[in-house]
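Thread: Newbie trying to understand structure tokens

Hi all, I'm a second-year student working on a class project, and my supervisor (Dr. K.) asked me to get a predicted structure for one chain before our next meeting. I've only ever worked with sequences, so writing a 3D structure as a token string is new to me. If someone could post the tokens and maybe explain what I'm looking at, I'd be very grateful. Here's the chain:
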Amino acid sequence: MDHANVAVRPPILFAVPFLAAMVIEYLLPLGPGLAGGPRRAVLVGIGLMVLGAVPFAFAVRRFLAAGTNVPTWQPSLALVEDGPYNFTRNPIYIGLVTLYFGLSVALTSVWALIFLPFLIAVLHHGVVLREEAYLAAKFGEPYRKFQERVPRWF
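---
Reply by user tm_fold:
Sure, no problem. This is what the structure looks like when written as tokens:
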């Protein structure tokens, strides 16, 4: 099996809690929810979404330029260590968490914000740690040196 054996695929990990939060928000709102919040919350949320989209898009672009796969269920073909990977080993996930957070703020969804710490825990334990084990086995010493040089998150 030449891929990271993640517990859940990242698109599903982010989409399912968010969609569940939207349903619960509709049925049992804890705040303004889908009806819309203060204009400031919407603007801050949009700003956070843009902030999250930048590292995500740049990291995906680096993967594509290196000729490697982005989806976790496909093999990693190259070790990408430049661009946003000079600062963090997980710019895609940092971008996705920031996008999720921004969308939650823009929609003033308290439920989505409640789900976020659980999402991050699953991301860390069920995805990132498994990806790291896979990449260490696949790329060996170059990946271990990358781990020593670049922090996992910040």
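A couple of things are worth pointing out once you decode it. The mean pLDDT is 94. Residues 36-149 form one domain. Feel free to ask follow-ups in this thread.
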